[in-house]
Design goal:
Elements: E1 3-9, H1 13-24, E2 29-33, H2 59-72, E3 76-79, E4 84-86, E5 92-96, E6 99-108, E7 112-114, H3 122-125, E8 130-131, H4 134-137, E9 145-149, H5 153-162, E10 168-172, H6 182-190, E11 194-197, E12 200-207, E13 211-218, E14 224-228, E15 237-240, E16 244-246, E17 257-258, E18 261-262, E19 275-277, H7 289-309
Parallel strand pairs: 1-2, 1-6, 2-3, 6-19, 8-15, 9-10, 9-15, 10-11
Antiparallel strand pairs: 4-5, 5-6, 7-16, 12-13, 13-14, 17-18
Helix pairs in contact: 1-2, 1-7, 5-6
The structure holds flavin-adenine dinucleotide (FAD).
Length: about 300
């Protein structure tokens, strides 16, 4: 069986950046991705904070360029879901169902995913009025009222984006103050299409084939409110941006973790020699594209150094 120099698990910004650095350093590299390349940033239509993006940049356009760079440096890619890993020893193994791949080093770039609300009606209406991706589903809500759940950067960014389609956007946040960056908050407060229901949570979503109403609870006074769809519309949309969970179950009991996030040193080393973790899956203070690609670059260089030391 072939032994790669490096296997990268995940082709989000962190994995692609690692691929670019590894390919350019002539490491024989394989990227394993279960979906299409790009990860979470594919969900956003506007990235204002990625250094060098003066023009409006979308997640997909940024990823297209990163992916082209990965191809240019001759990195192999397979579409498969990693189901198990063996991280000790000089040759590590990555299992994808019945298939096994081997490498001297592994970079884990599995990222994170949106957290569900865990409320009555959420599963029933997922994809039928309830979404976790404004870029994917925003245009379906043209002319309708949409509710955005959350108060962080993603929630406010996506609420602003949704005003392009929706007739009105109401942000529902469980606390009295938003957590989003002040600049985003200012934009949202100035936007006439956006209003806020603070100290509030959705308890239940109801309807037939589409969302027709929901029950909200005010956490300060315990009062519940019934929201009904405008009779002229018959429905409304709900977009959930209520936090993220690292995709790290695979590594549980193997790697050091805190709250599910993989612990590394500043050079991305995990507690297994030759195994690195990068991007949103690792314990860090800022989960963004800029920090994900920085992690990827560092880990690829460290993988090269590790291989030279063998
Ligand atoms: C709506 C939204 C808006 C955002 N806006 C911005 C912004 O404006 N600016 C900014 O800098 N950041 C933004 N972010 C954050 C940014 O997208 C993330 O920080 C970044 O994508 C993290 O990159 P990553 O490569 O670590 O992980 P991810 O992007 O999560 O990619 C991980 C990849 O690994 C794959 N994977 C996971 N497990 C497996 C497995 N077992 N087998 C195979 N493949 C696997 C996944 O399918 C995925 O493609 C936004 C995020 C969201 C959701």
């Amino acid at each position: 069986m072939k032994t790669y120099d490096l296997i990268i698990i995940g082709a989000g910004p962190a994995g692609l950046a690692a691929g670019i650095y590894a390919g350019r350093a002539m490491l024989d590299t394989l990227i394993i991705e279960k979906d299409i390349e790009g990860g979470q940033i594919l969900q956003t239509s506007e990235i204002e904070n990625y250094p060098g993006s003066l023009e409006v940049e979308s997640g997909p356009t940024l990823i297209d360029r990163m992916d082209a760079q990965v191809k240019k440096f001759g990195v192999d890619k397979v579409t498969a879901t990693v189901t198990d890993v063996v991280l000790d020893g000089q040759v590590k193994a990555v299992r994808c169902g019945n298939e096994i791949f081997q490498a001297k080093t592994i970079i884990i770039a599995g990222g994170a995913a949106a957290v569900s609300l865990g409320i009555e009606g959420e599963e029933k209406f997922r994809g039928r009025g309830l979404s976790y991706c404004a870029t994917c589903d925003g245009p379906f809500f043209r002319g309708l009222h949409v509710y955005v759940v959350g108060g962080g950067d993603s929630a406010i960014q996506e609420a602003l984006y949704l005003t392009k389609f929706a007739k009105k956007v109401t942000v529902i946040h469980r606390r009295q103050e938003l957590r989003a960056a002040k600049s985003l908050q200012e934009k949202a407060f100035k936007n006439e299409k956006i209003d806020f229901m603070l100290d509030s949570v959705i308890r239940e979503i109801h309807g037939g084939d589409v969302i027709e109403g929901m029950t909200l609870e005010n956490l300060k006074n315990g009062k519940t409110t019934e929201i009904k769809a405008d009779p002229n519309d018959g429905t409304f949309g709900i977009f959930v941006f209520a936090g993220y969970k690292p995709k790290s179950e695979l590594y549980s009991g193997k790697l050091h973790m805190e709250n599910g996030y993989i612990v590394t040193d500043e050079d991305m080393h995990t507690n297994f020699p030759g195994v690195f973790a990068v991007g949103d899956i690792r314990k860090k203070s800022l989960r963004q594209v800029a920090t994900a690609v920085a992690d990827g670059a560092i880990a690829a260089v460290q993988a090269e150094t590790y291989i030279e030391s063998l």
